[in-house]
């Protein structure tokens, strides 16, 4: 019968019962704190999992509340007076009206157009340049009107909210007729 290979450097150490017992005690001494720390880690893991589950429940509740609030806002938006209703297509049209393709920063020279030989064309280009300058000045005057109107609307709504009770506010802002 073949004998199993030794686990130690010296063959005699494999047959010394006291050394084997000492080695087992040393291994058990290492194993006990490792098992204890493993139990502590598992307990901490279960606590964290419970916290995560609680947080997931809170998150699900917050998401439900957010969806409910969004639907309430959408319903309230549909009840707004026609003047106060935001209309996506109207906004797009307004943005298109504001952006008519003028490049305010770009300046043309009459020499770029090749009109230096014709005096009539030079006068026409000079008049046209004056008109373009006037248009650019007018555009600079009306820039920001849309934002100012939105800010004014918000300020009026906030002031009305502060001074009116809920039914009056709904009647004014949402156009809800309480008498029907």
Question: Mind sketching the topology for me?
Answer:
Blueprint: H1 17-78, H2 88-98, H3 119-142, H4 145-163, H5 166-174
Tell me about this structure.
- There is one protein chain.
- 69% of the residues lie in helices and 0% in strands.
- The mean pLDDT is 78.
- The protein has helices at 17-78, 88-98, 119-142, 145-163, 166-174.
- With 180 residues, it is mostly helical.
- The radius of gyration is 41 Å and the shape is elongated.
- The protein contains five helices and no strands.
Identify the notable features of this structure and list them briefly.
180 residues, 0% strand, single chain, elongated, 69% helix, 5 helices, mainly alpha
């Amino acid at each position: 019968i073949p004998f199993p290979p030794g686990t130690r450097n010296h063959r005699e150490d494999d047959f010394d019962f006291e050394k084997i017992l000492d080695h087992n005690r040393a291994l058990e001494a290492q194993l006990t704190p490792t098992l204890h720390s493993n139990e502590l880690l598992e307990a901490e893991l279960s606590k964290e999992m419970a916290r995560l589950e609680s947080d997931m429940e809170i998150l699900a509740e917050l998401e439900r509340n957010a969806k409910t609030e969004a639907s309430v806002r959408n319903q309230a938006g549909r009840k707004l007076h026609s003047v106060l209703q935001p209309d996506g297509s109207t906004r797009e049209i307004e943005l298109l009206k504001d952006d008519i393709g003028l490049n305010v920063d770009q300046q043309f020279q009459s020499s770029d157009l090749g009109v230096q030989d014709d005096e009539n064309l030079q006068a026409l280009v000079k008049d046209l340049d004056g008109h373009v300058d006037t248009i650019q000045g007018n555009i600079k005057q009306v820039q920001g009107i849309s934002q100012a109107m939105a800010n004014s609307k918000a300020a009026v709504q906030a002031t009305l909210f502060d001074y009116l009770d809920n039914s009056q506010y709904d009647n004014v802002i949402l156009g809800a007729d309480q008498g029907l």
